[in-house]
Design brief:
Elements (H helix, E strand, L loop, with lengths): L4 H10 L2 H13 L4 H20 L5 H24 L6 E7 L7 H12 L2 E5 L6 H8 L7 E7 L6 H13 L6
Parallel strand pairs: 1-2, 1-3
Helix pairs in contact: 1-2, 1-3, 1-4, 2-4, 3-4, 4-5, 6-7
């Protein structure tokens, strides 16, 4: 019996971590194309994202599905690397200094990883200097997404400083 990628999509969509991991392990054992396995998981998250956009589900339901995908992707990741599947884009993400909330950041990072985007997660309560250092690092020319976030009003001033300082950098990309 071959691994059922439709069942994998359904498991990720339903947030069934055990089933998603089991089906992914089976697919890996059967040497299925890792891109097809990843696409099955990504398809589920596209459905979840659509439901979220239409207010059919909320953040907790998205997190349940994202965690199922994260665990299944952890099984698949070494196979993707061995097959030479490399992310096409790199993203830097973190929450701005003064904000310790990370649910939204983690959710976005999981979605990006599932979309075959390399994610450099700076964590929470990240200083302007750390963001700017990441934006100017040796991989700058390959970084196509930079994302910072804040959820609380107290960190709004830090975000304004970060945006101002980032825009002032002569080496920044468009």
């Amino acid at each position: 019996r071959m691994a059922d990628l439709e069942a994998l999509t359904a498991a990720v969509e339903a947030g069934d971590r055990a089933a998603a991991v089991a089906i992914t392990r089976q697919a890996v054992a059967e040497e299925m194309d890792p891109r097809a396995v990843l696409e099955a998981m990504t398809a589920a998250m596209e459905v979840i994202g659509g439901k979220f956009a239409c207010n059919e589900i909320y953040v907790p339901e998205m997190l349940i599905s994202a965690r199922a995908m994260k665990e299944a992707t952890a099984v698949l990741e070494p196979v993707l690397v061995a097959a030479g599947v490399r992310p096409e884009h790199t993203a830097v993400i973190g929450t701005i200094k003064g904000d310790l909330h990370d649910i939204g950041k983690n959710l976005v990072a999981m979605m990006w990883k599932g979309g075959n985007i390399r994610v450099i997660d700076l964590g929470t309560n990240v200083s302007t200097e750390k963001f700017l250092a990441a934006a100017g690092g040796r991989w700058m020319e390959r970084t196509s997404v930079r994302r910072w976030d804040r959820i609380i009003t107290i960190s709004q001033a830090m975000q304004s400083i970060l945006v101002r300082d980032y825009r002032a950098r002569p080496e920044r990309l468009a």
